[in-house]
Records
---
Amino acid sequence: MHADNLILGITGNIASGKSMIAEAFARKGAALVSADQLAREAVAPGSPALKKLLKRFGARILLKNGELNREMLGQIVFADAQAREALNQITHPAIADLAVTRLQHLKRAAGIPLIVYEAPLLFEAGAEGRVDRILVVKIDPEIQLQRLMRRDQLSEAAAWQRIRAQMPQQEKLARADYVIDNSGPVSEALDQVERLWSQLQGERSEID
């Protein structure tokens, strides 16, 4: 009888490098579940969640092929707190159902060294209960701004709007079990992943 697998939630603010860190754990052998990927599944054409979004936001949020235009929806909700709240109320329960099913299946599976749940809105969605430990990816605010502007081709004002729409980084850090600082070179962040991987494997051995 093996002990249940450990689920590590990875979160952090926009352009902090969460996906890079999550993928580094996956390369080490972790099973990766991405809330962004689940969000895409939750609003697939024909899904109940997409129908609710259409009712709330109208046909402008659809692409010609019937899929959700995430870029258009992003522009709408980042500029309007009420619209953002409406989006969350529709999508979070649908994502939660998928996440719980996927994570619980992996938690009971044999031969998995670690499960990583990458969730940008882990705290905002009240999803801490889905994971055993929480890693917050930290970033220097000025570096975050420059990365976001470059990555998404945004003006400084538009980038700040997206940053300010999120829970402040300090609040997330206060609730973290572990922190990786991704303000420097990628190699430094990957060294921190290596150390945390070893630490978590040691803790797993103690549980087993």
Note: Residues 81-108 form the longest helix (28 residues).
---
Amino acid sequence: MSLKLTPELIAKVILWAAFWAFLATLSAPLMAETSKDTRTSKSISFNKNTEPDTSEKDAQLKQAEADISSALTTQGFRLESNVTALHIVNTDYISDGSTTIYDASTMLISDFNDDGFYHRFSVTIDADTIYDTAYIYARLYLSYEGGPWNHYATSNNYHIHGDSELDAFVIETELADGFLPGYYDIRIELYDADTGDWLTSYGPYDDASLSALPLEDSYHDDQYTAVLLPVETEIVVAGHGGSMSWLLLLLPVIVSAARRYGFRYES
């Protein structure tokens, strides 16, 4: 059975194409919002004294498992660096003071579009113990402009030795998606790697280097990302001093064609 191309059929095909293009234009902002329902980051950690070179760190980050979490929480109350700030309930945490953080520092690494906000950064932790050695790991949190803490990275396990400066370790992170451009505070929590017990916390009020870091995800930082917008043709309407997009001007034509050729949209 052959399909005969008639003016009526051609008009209906054009009408369908215009209709679905119009729906796609309306749904684009909604799709963009839906994509931010989660946040994604990748992190690696290493001993400061055995820091890999840049190419090796790039390769490790690329191979690292992505940490996909619920959407960034930006509104609400946050607790600062103390025992009650833990996000675990029904457990008593009492620090015996055996482990402390002597120093912490941050480094901003990658800003592709040179807007002053970075999608890649690192945190260096120098922890001390009253014992000869202790086995620990760190959990790191981000707070968006004073909002609640959001966990974003967990380090490997490390041995620390007394008050040595040679056991400092680094957590390097790449924010992939779901992190709005803004100023972030960082919170560090140390845990016993053998028992999982909380040991100590350290935050922006303990160290200014953990305060107000200009960060954003790589989606916002990608200078090569092309934002596709509807092509608009400016048409000056005489006597009105204004202009309209081609999409708005097309709507009456679509309606007229639908009436002329008996087109009906059935849901």
Note: The first helix runs from residue 7 to 34.
